[in-house]
Design a protein that fits this description.
The protein has 425 residues and is α+β, with helices and mostly antiparallel strands. The protein has four domains: 49 residues; 46 residues; 150 residues, Ribonuclease H-like superfamily/Ribonuclease H (Nucleotidyltransferase, domain 5); 62 residues, no CATH class. Helices cover 36% and strands 15% of the residues. The strands form two sheets. It has a six-stranded antiparallel beta sheet, with no helix packed on it. A five-stranded mixed beta sheet has the order 3-2-1-4-5, sandwiched between helices. The termini are far apart.
């Protein structure tokens, strides 16, 4: 019996012996007088055991069956290992038709020793930044290298963009490493789906900002613009304000996204038996749509802040830009190869030895950029590498050695030598 039940037995004994009145019993036990008479009758009929709770020692009617608990633990060990309690409960309802609360799933895993008790770390003091009021006011872009395919495939890097106002994943793609091509792919996909945002938040990676991009004090005083990377030049052409984060907490929205993906996306890829990067990119849109349905929120202002796309194709904007000199044969070189603009009727030839802008797309296609228009270029026959010959090459003549510093040719003329040369002249 519990302490409160023993107290009831002692008070009822004093009442039966006449040492307490019914009003005193009701006041001491904190019950009504009618309830006190009920307890007295129950005590006289069944003794002290009748005062104990009737469900003590009895299995609750709403408890989970042991067979169900064993099945849940077996499913976690065989298929869903590594998932947290919330995600595991969702997967059970989606794939196994087992509907349990998150607390029940967590309790089953803890009782079976399958999940350790979560240790709560002391939170750090970071001032939370409120969300932007409109969708399209700020995008956050980043990449996360992780074992997304576990031991079934190679290590991959997930590139992604999230909208700050809604938490919606705008675009994402897998690449072997963090590359410019991966960022350009997600950026072009997001621009085509939504439009041009007002600002972009990123880290200080050299893809977004070259190491020597910040101008010196002399360059600032001279009015020279800072040098931009390929990605930075594209953002400037689109009119997107680029903001660099000084710490991971500054772009915490997308950092929290990586934690969610590393906890959930790995399990989803495992259930679909994805083993290659191509398969992962094929199922990724379905998983991103599922994530957005569950975690995206409505913005404060329903009117989006996106701007329309420019007339220039995005492949021409997000391209590597170099400057080359046109030869007399209307050709220019790029990475050891010779290219020529495709002839177009009615278009004059480029002036020989003039400097032109060359843009190379992420797929290797080359264009000659002139006055806001891209001219496709083709590789000429001159850039083909000749077949190697087995004939022995003649030794090149030795280059003349540079005279030493004390050589008579390099000594300054004396006054007598100057007078002699003047007289002879």
């Amino acid at each position: 019996m519990t302490k409160s039940e023993l107290k009831r037995v002692m008070v009822l004994e004093k009442w039966i012996d006449g040492r307490l009145a019914e009003q005193d019993v009701a006041r001491i036990l904190g019950i009504s007088i009618r309830q006190a008479y009920r307890l007295k009758a129950k005590y006289r009929h069944g003794g002290a055991q009748a005062i104990a709770h009737g469900n003590r020692g009895r299995k609750p009617a709403h408890t989970l069956a042991d067979s169900l608990k064993q099945r849940v633990m077996l499913l976690y060990q065989e298929r869903y290992f590594g998932s947290n309690a919330t995600h595991f409960a969702e997967l059970l309802a989606e794939h196994e038709n087992i509907h349990l609360s998150v607390s029940s799933v967590r309790r089953i895993l803890l009782e079976g020793g399958l999940r350790p008790a979560r240790l709560r770390r002391r939170p750090k003091a970071h001032r939370p930044r409120p969300r932007k009021p409109q969708a399209g006011m700020l995008w956050q872009i980043d990449a996360s290298p992780y074992a997304w395919l576990e031991d079934r495939g190679p290590m991959l890097t997930l590139h992604g963009i999230i909208d700050d106002a809604t938490g919606e994943v705008v675009a994402a793609t897998f690449r072997p490493t963090e590359t410019l091509e991966g960022y350009v792919t997600v950026m072009i996909e997001g621009l085509r789906r939504k439009g041009v945002p007002l600002a972009l938040y990123s880290d200080q990676h050299s893809i977004f900002h070259p190491p020597k991009g910040k101008p010196t004090l002399e360059q600032e005083l001279a009015g020279e613009p800072p040098s931009l990377s390929t990605f930075g030049q594209a953002l400037a052409d689109l009119g997107i304000t680029h903001i660099e984060a000084l710490s991971p907490q500054a772009k915490g929205r997308i950092e929290r996204l990586w934690q969610t993906f590393q906890d959930r996306l790995v399990i989803e890829l495992r259930l679909r038996n994805v083993c290659t990067m191509e398969e992962a990119n094929r199922v990724l849109p379905e998983l991103i749509a599922k994530h957005n349905r569950q975690f995206a929120v409505a913005p404060q202002n329903a009117e989006p802040a996106y701007r329309p796309l420019p007339e220039t194709p995005l492949e021409h904007i997000f391209a590597r830009r170099q400057y080359r000199r046109i030869s007399g044969g209307q050709t220019f070189s790029w990475k050891g190869k010779c290219y020529m603009p495709k002839p177009v009727p009615g278009v004059p030839r480029w002036e020989a030895k003039s400097v032109v802008e060359v843009r190379v797309g992420m797929d290797g296609q080359v264009w000659l950029w002139d006055q806001g228009r891209a001219w496709p270029c083709v590789e000429t026959q001159a850039s083909q590498t000749p077949a190697p010959t087995t004939a022995k090459k003649e030794a090149a003549p030795a280059s003349p050695r540079k005279p030493a510093a004390n050589h008579p040719w390099r000594k300054p003329f004396s006054s007598k030598q100057l007078q002699r040369s003047t007289a002879s002249g």
